[in-house]
Amino acid sequence: MKKIKTGIFGGTGYTGLELSRLLSAHPNVEIVFITSESRAGQTLRDAWPQAGHYDLVSATEAPLDETDAVFLCLPHTQSAGVAARAVEHGVKVIDLSADLRLQTPESYFEWYGVPHPAPFILPSPYGLPELGRDGLAGADVIANPGCYATAALLGLAPLVRNGLVVPGHAIVIDAKSGASGAGRAPKSHLLFGEIHGNLSPYNIGRSHRHLGEIEQFLLPDGLQPGRLIFSPHLLPTDRGILAAIYIRVTNMQSALAIFHSQYAGEALVDVLETPELATLAHVVRTPRAVLSLTPAGEDHLIVMVAIDNLLKGAASQAVQNFNLMHHLPETTGLLETMAEPV
Amino acid sequence: MKKIKTGIFGGTGYTGLELSRLLSAHPNVEIVFITSESRAGQTLRDAWPQAGHYDLVSATEAPLDETDAVFLCLPHTQSAGVAARAVEHGVKVIDLSADLRLQTPESYFEWYGVPHPAPFILPSPYGLPELGRDGLAGADVIANPGCYATAALLGLAPLVRNGLVVPGHAIVIDAKSGASGAGRAPKSHLLFGEIHGNLSPYNIGRSHRHLGEIEQFLLPDGLQPGRLIFSPHLLPTDRGILAAIYIRVTNMQSALAIFHSQYAGEALVDVLETPELATLAHVVRTPRAVLSLTPAGEDHLIVMVAIDNLLKGAASQAVQNFNLMHHLPETTGLLETMAEPV
Amino acid sequence: MKKIKTGIFGGTGYTGLELSRLLSAHPNVEIVFITSESRAGQTLRDAWPQAGHYDLVSATEAPLDETDAVFLCLPHTQSAGVAARAVEHGVKVIDLSADLRLQTPESYFEWYGVPHPAPFILPSPYGLPELGRDGLAGADVIANPGCYATAALLGLAPLVRNGLVVPGHAIVIDAKSGASGAGRAPKSHLLFGEIHGNLSPYNIGRSHRHLGEIEQFLLPDGLQPGRLIFSPHLLPTDRGILAAIYIRVTNMQSALAIFHSQYAGEALVDVLETPELATLAHVVRTPRAVLSLTPAGEDHLIVMVAIDNLLKGAASQAVQNFNLMHHLPETTGLLETMAEPV
Amino acid sequence: MKKIKTGIFGGTGYTGLELSRLLSAHPNVEIVFITSESRAGQTLRDAWPQAGHYDLVSATEAPLDETDAVFLCLPHTQSAGVAARAVEHGVKVIDLSADLRLQTPESYFEWYGVPHPAPFILPSPYGLPELGRDGLAGADVIANPGCYATAALLGLAPLVRNGLVVPGHAIVIDAKSGASGAGRAPKSHLLFGEIHGNLSPYNIGRSHRHLGEIEQFLLPDGLQPGRLIFSPHLLPTDRGILAAIYIRVTNMQSALAIFHSQYAGEALVDVLETPELATLAHVVRTPRAVLSLTPAGEDHLIVMVAIDNLLKGAASQAVQNFNLMHHLPETTGLLETMAEPV
Predict the structure, then answer these.
(1) Residue A340: band (very low, low, confident or very high) from pLDDT cuts 50, 70, 90
(2) Residue A341, helix vs strand vs coil
(3) What is the ipTM of this complex?
(4) CA distances from D101 to B125, D8, D220, D310 (A)
(5) 20 to 30 A from B206, CA-CA: which of A12, B29, B200, B278?
(6) CB contact (8 A) between residue A279 and residue B304
(7) DSSP letters of D220-240?
């Protein structure tokens, strides 16, 4: 079979590295180029000791015309322009930045504080396959969801969509992420000495940008505006997200049942049997999401959602979307090497 | 000045070690004995490479009569009996186990699943000084609060006592603790290989035992029964607790102000100026609690409370209680070596 | 192609878990059984949240006759008896314990302090393929090397065999291992609270048992007896071994060259170009060994050897040996999912 | 008693923070100023959540004339100039940079690759008190030793000075340091994600700059030039140095005995009884050095030396030197809060 010629923009951050690893083992992919501005002229192995000797080129030198598809692991505001250029050239795009996640320029401005760099490309399909594959199969452009948004939506959407949320009450999402979620650029607060032995909340309440895409996704399904409280924390570990979601439900039995029916048949989402609890150890270095359900009193449900922020929260979900775009089985390149499904 | 002759029961667990460290530097204390069943005949230094050469004796050989006060770092069910014996001998007791925290045998049975081993000793004063010193000054017996309970109560009591909590809504306490909180007994799930890189919730919802003492404390002040949801997690670090408390308040300005007034003048509790957020780095290896306050939307408040689980959550709070018992300045032995108060 | 029916004895320790993961993805393997004494009746997933639902049976109930080959991840002294029984049944054996590594019962007694449990099975081929495949291809029994021994031998053998070691001088092997090397049995010194933030040497000098197999391997090649000094340390991380080997060489250019020629063409051993230095990050979670070479002054060479203690130091090397036994390509089941070779 | 007015140049790096913590609790010290170029105008607490509210000023605004003594925690090349200026003003100097450690400008150029910025200030007394207090008592300027140099010298000097080293053999120093040793400036290789789970050697062999001061100190005592091999490694923890020193000795009994006699009566250096081994846990967050001695075969000795790189390797040793300069008891401000000496 002819391989899909693929380029990666931004290959030396943590997400780009995971993506190159996945794509280098993907049976239908040929990697044509990997870009890096800071390391152009070097090889990927210079950025990552386990990587292959892929040459790194700057984005302006990347042979876009020689590819069928590109993954964008670029900073927001930089990504949309590249996406637009790729679309012009008839190249499919999976954008892992935030640039295509919000459907309107107004919403983008609200959450990111800058005008959208390429508003004509909006809206793009939002690639969270387990919550809706319409618009993803065969798509030309897909916005890959944020890592926290993926965890939150997998835990909330089944309840919201089925009218199981009691209105008028806050929904608390207390989320914790490994440090790779903050990226690989050298910043003081990301030094080993600052994170080791520490746990630090940041952007808690109603201020983190992923709230925008979570609410955009859930409001049409019936979520009340302003009810979400979202508190991310930086964990002293390298990877993984665990989100604890606290929600008052109208009917506990239905609430428990809906998760099992929603995700029955999903290869990459597992719902544990109560009382087992989801942990990072369930998911780290895998493309899976694992959920657990714990009633608290009569009417509150605690949904724990665990994902690897770099995989289901970024790179492996991008590969799911890539597979859907190309009408390949959705888990191609993702499950071959895993232990038997749980 | 004559030193207070003091014994430590259970000196080789993490809490006992911290206590011996604090007491060995306390200007008014002479350590008379330290007990250990597993290490009787050895010295404390065999259990802890930085400790002094204190001889360890078994509890039955400890010269209770030669002491003025004892600290009990024993497992629950074992502690109450020793406490009762000490009281008989006129020796003051600070009990760091759970045995004296609940005020009735019925409540103890409800939360611990066994009959109380010495019901006649109940109720004992609950030693959380910043929330009430009545009954602590000069007391003969004090129950030292649980680590999670200390964090939760410091964050909740000011709101509950002042009627600032909207009834009918859940109060979520999402708490994370370093591994020392689980003790030093060898258990599989506490191995380095299980905790490194992991984050695991346990006993979430309405099942963790510290809920009992939290509710006991707050119900008389007006907390609605059954409204607390408490989710502890085990962090990949050695020490520290960070509790995120989510609560709907009747008046945001009053809610913010009440914390500052409640803890004004407290040497060991700091309330940060918004928007600074409490982290483990604020408190680890100190006897302080640090709180931060973050409004989420119009009517929800997020109170972050950080303590060192082994200090404000155990050993240093025990020293506060000891000082109160003996009419010493409350921070004796605790602040001499710290940097200037924040 | 017909799959090789394979059993794993001792499947719930860290090595057994890695082995089950590798074998479940091995294209020529069907896992017939996995044993566990402590978890018989449970599934592998109960021991490891990412594992499949393999049923665990006790060793006495394992259907040895239904297998073509077995891997033994049992404690030493227990393993040899099972190996002997398997051989009787015509089942191939890869023994990951220490029982078959030393070639004589006398040597076993010297290093392990107990009589060999099945001396008639000795000697067995020593399965370190890159240092000699004779006796491994088609073998019925292979002793899988110790983790430290693998690292030390890969760094030393090329020099010793080629007469490049100056006699009369000590050879220092300063080795550091992640905590998984110490196993998964609950022991106090392996608790998270004891290893986090610590680095501890143990059995240093001439006492660690892996010295026995290292010297046994190198003495026939010309190593002087008693010259090795070997100091293992326990690192505050979960996996990986880094060994720094200090050796006086007769000819620096030849010493540097011999490593490149020795390992040219080896898929699983990489020799870095000086001055790049081997680190754990080169090898963790891979089946590779990575070496670096650094001259120190005119006549001393520092050889750094990095391996994953659970893979090249145990499970993946066992799969290499299994493949050789069955005349399969040596890296079957090991490289399919890795990034392009470095 | 009148307090000694003291300034700290460079107060917001890891060493400066430890120093401010120690000095704020020192009974004879009044902190007059703390400088920071990057944080001038802020308070120390902005750099470190447990610190006091000391105002930070830029170095040019620091009131040097109002002090009796200054500690310099500045980058090398910047420090010597400030030291020279302080000396002119009659202010005592403890320099924690490398600028004053080498006794000649030539040696400085050899190891640091730049001309010495203030050669007229050389040579300065080298402040490693346990190896020689001559020249330190009452001194006006002291060069505070490097962290690795402190560990290496404490382990080597007793042997070299007493002629117990067999000539013609390499002396291997395999040292491991926590990440704080690399400083607090944001660099990619110091990110949490790069160090967590890793162990990486750097500047091994004969290239690390601390070799210069180690040899300068030992050559006059009889060390053969060029015999030291020194290999530092970066550990996945925040603080602590463990150095394993491998040395062929002329007489094992004398070698063992010399350490006990050398350090008898030293409050801050402990020599463990064989076979106990020094670990980071012995020393982290203490001003002590702990040594252990292990014979390897008949003629090699392994000396393990553990220190906290930020304390005995920097800040607390600086306080020892400060105390000596001012004819105060050497451990003033260092031992008051520790458990009984081991």
Answers:
(1) very low
(2) coil
(3) 0.96
(4) 59, 19, 16, 17
(5) B278
(6) no
(7) GGTPPTT-EEEEEEE-SSSS-
